[in-house]
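Q: What would this complex look like in 3D?
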Amino acid sequence: MSALARCSPIYYNCDACKCVSSSQNHQTSENRNLVTNRRSSKPNRLILHNRSKNPNDPSLTRALREFADSGLMEDALHLFDEMNKADVFVWNVMIKGFTTCGLYHEALRFYSRMVLTGIKADSFTYPFVIKSAAGASSLLEGKTVHAAVIKLGFDSDVYVCNSLISFYMKLGCERDAEKVFDEMPERDVVSWNSIVSGFLAVGDGVRSLVMFKEMMECGFKPDRFSIMSALGACSHVEDCLRMGKEIHCYAIRSGIEDVMVLTSVLDMYSRYSEVSYAERVFNGMSNRNIVAWNVMIGCYARNGRGVDAFLCFQKMSERTDVITLINLLPACEEILEGRTVHGYATRRGFLPHVVLETALIDMYGEGGKVKSAEAVFDRMGEKNLVSWNSMIAAYVRNGENYSALKLFRELWDWDWDWDSSSLVPDSTTIASILPAYAESLSLSEGRQLHAYVVKARYSSNTIVLNSLVHMYAMCGDLEDARKCFDQVVFKDVVSWNSIIMAYAVHGFGRISVCLFSEMVTTSGVSPNKSTFASLLAACSISGMIDEGWDYFNSMKREYGIDPGIEHYVYMVDLIGRTGNLSSAKRFIEDMPFVPTARVWGSLLKASRNHNDITVAEFAAEQVLKMEHDNTGCYVLLLNMYSEAGRWEDVDRIKLLMKSQGVSKTTSCSTVVTRGRTHVFTNGDRSHVETNKIYEVLDIVSRMVEEEEEEEEESYVHCVSKMRPETLLKKKRNSPRRHSVRLATCLGLISTETGRAVVVRNNTRICRRCHEFLEKASKVTRREIVVGDSKIFHHFSNGCCSCGNYW
DNA sequence: ATAGGGTTAG
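A: Here is my prediction, written as structure tokens for the whole assembly.
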């Protein structure tokens, strides 16, 4: 060991060579790595001079501070090398310098060097070190430092504790943060602010507000920091508009009205859709920065004020940033400027940018431009879970369930062992994909997803549970839909709408109505447009005519909700059901909307059910004007004409269909047994258990005493003109071998006896099958649930929940 | 000398 080293009290453990060298030698070589473009200073007399216990020259210390404070860490390092390191202060200056530059790892390395050198850290050291541990997101280092803090007795220092609170909050350890806070011998405003903003940061807005209140009760006056956090909490917690307004008033009274505070106020009003309040705050701001403009644009864009959003955007001219565009995009759907904004973003060089690209996917998805959304998604260099979720949602929203499921499976099968950054479906993913399962009717896969929901601990998430309710209901399992609904602790309007609709489509309108009154009397949740849509659906499907009218009339009168076109559709169904078709027609003519194909379709269905060809022809004409490829419309006419024996009309429609390129959809039914989905077409003999299925069908048919096929007039007509192969096809299409019966029979023999047999059918069930299923439910003593293209029929003990009208 | 801060996509 050199004389130089021996006279120095400072030794340094070298990690690289395991030697113990003098700090001077080692540091110089190590620092050379950091300070690449400068020559390191050579040891000289000055250093020998400084090796003594003499304190550092005040001018040197001042210079070091100046370097560090202005971010010149290279210069600071040089100077540091030449100074006496027995002094804690110089270490603190260095650590602080690195921390403020964001060189957190460097700061932490300096701290450990300091400890290893034998210098005792003081109460000034720790706040910086802890901040660096937070910045480096290193829970382990932070906890180690915390241990040292306790050992050295700094755990009563306000500054140290305040930084510990922020550290733990930043790393999501709110319990540790709270413990530090609770055990502090004295707290100041910063302690309170740290805990209030911390709870907000970990997503617990409620506790944030609770602490804010407690802070005031303890006699602390909220400052601008407290106000900003509390306003943020109000924005993230439901029903806190009042509280937000109170805080706004407090800010005004206390004269705290700087740009940042006002921007927080603005954001709070924006999130509560209080556009005029937001405008007032924005207009009253003496100087606005880009953030304020962005918030105002977002406020307009998300509240149906697209034009104003664009006006703001124009006023900003080129002073826009990526966030401006992200906020502007929701307005594009309304203004139809999506592509323009996309182009603008490209020209300004804002792309690629994950959040902006994700916002573009949403925008295209909302506007029905799935292909554009897909193009953005496919070209993204960096994708996060949100991007995947948006793309899945875009597919689902536009009915591309197959693509949605494919993408979801890709995400699902992600190689999670590859590294920790791999993407794991979250509650949003689940809530987005579940409707696709509901639409694609794959109950077994939906169940698998439910299992995942439980495993991933999303089973108390309202949004997830709501979509599970919907999925189960649409897949035919009303019982499990109800179970999920009952599991929702915090029921929102969507929860209620989902369950009301579930009972409605299953033909239990009475229960829907009861649930509605429970909703308005006890739950405290206010009904919205969709609630009434579900309710009117329930009334129309279950034939509750008077109630339907009552609800329709009370919508506007009692709840201030204007009926939309969807409500009129259900009303046409409802009126049509009574058989008063002229009244239904008049209702359509008097409604304040241009009738859609769906509205006329509703009248068409009613005229078919009441066998009124004249009205049917009129309604069909209207439908075909708008949708000349509407298969269902042609088929319905075809059936009505053939039942009436109007063969020339039958042929005319057939010709029309051919010219329009429309063909009858092949009717098929599916049933799930032991997790496997079986598909049947009419007269299908392709199933491995075909013989067994037909045997069962025979037995059940005999039990229900269905009469041998009568040679109906229509049948005779067809037969007489048919070629042999067509005749064979016709025979296969006999109601006695309809797919729905085949699927039901397989269901009867391969599912548990206690459970209902659930069959899905892509077309409307024919009268004869309906009758068959009614009787079959009685003789087999099984509940049979059949979902057709619109509703579910629950056959039980000889009766159907649809009351024989569908 | 030290600690705490506003905007964005689902």
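A: To summarize the key features: Chain A has 44 helices and eight strands. Confidence is low (pLDDT under 50) at residues 1-52, 711-717 of chain A.
Q: Very helpful, thank you.
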